[in-house]
Amino acid sequence: MMKNRLWNSSVCFSFRGLRLSLGMKTYRLSRAGRRLILALLVGALLIWLFAIWSFVNTLGISLNPLALPASLSAALRSGLGIAEIVPALLMLVLIIANPLLIWNLLEEWSAGYTPSESGLCFESLGVRLDVPWSLVRGLESDDDDRDEPRDELVLSSDVSTQITNPLVRFLHRQAFGSARLPIYSGVADRDELLGVIRRNSVPAVA
Q1: Residue 64 contacts by C-beta under 8 Å, 6 or more apart in sequence?
Q2: 141, 149 in Cβ contact below 8 A?
Q3: Would you say the C-alpha torsion 45, 41, 197, 130 has a positive or negative sign?
Q4: pLDDT confidence band for 121 (50 / 70 / 90)
Q5: How far apart are CA 137 and CA 180, in angstroms?
Q6: How far apart are CA 110 and CA 112, in angstroms?
C-alpha cells in the first residue's frame, strides 16, 4: 500500500513537472479584475431591471405571462404617442442587449488561458477552444484611448465551431466574432501571457 502511494505521488510530481516544463500555466482574472467585473455585473443587472420596469410602466402592460399578450394588445389599440413610443423602444433595446452584456461579463469572469507547445487553450462557461499557434495571424492592441489595455488574437479560421452548443456558440461569437479571441485586460500576469503568445505564434507576432 505504501509502495503504491509513493508511486502515485511520484507520477503526480512528474506530471506537474512536465506541465511546468512545457509552460502549461493557466492564466485567469486577478482579484482586482474580478472585483471590476462584479461591479459591472451588478450595474448591468440594475440597468436591465430598470429597463423592464420603465418599459412596463410606459406602456401600462402587465408582467404576468398569462396577461401580457392581452395587456400589450390593449396598449397598442389605445394608440401610443411619441412620448410613449420613443422611451419604450429605448427600454426594449436595453432589455434585449443587457443579457448579452451580462453573458460577456460572465465569460470574462471565468476565462482561463493555458498555453502549451501546440497552442493556446481558452476555457470559460462551457466554452473550450484549442487554438494551434499556426492559426494565429496577429495580435491587435487597442491601448491608445482606453484606461485598460485590450488585445485580441486574430485567427486565420473560425475556431468557434469547436463549441458544440449552438446557443453558447452564438453568445461567444456575438462579442468578438468567429475569428478573434480576446485577451482580457484583467488577467493576472497578462504581460507574461502575451509574451508567451508572441514567442510561439507562427509567424511571430510583433
Answers
A1: none
A2: yes
A3: negative
A4: very high
A5: 10
A6: 7
Range with lowest mean pLDDT among 11-15, 69-73, 134-138, 186-190: 11-15
Tell me the CATH number of domain 112-206, given options 2.60.120, 2.30.29, 3.30.70, 2.60.40: 2.30.29
pLDDT computed for residue 27 by the predictor: 96
Number of residues in the chain: 206
- The radius of gyration computed from the CA coordinates of the chain, to the nearest angstrom, equals 23
Report the pLDDT value the prediction gives residue 95, as an integer from 0 to 100.
92
- CATH 2.30.29 maps onto the chain at 112-206
| Position with higher pLDDT, 70 vs 174 | 174
Burial 105-139 (b: 16+ CB within 10 A, else e): bebbbebebbbbeebbbbbbeebebebebebbbeb
Q: Is the pTM of this model over 0.85?
A: no
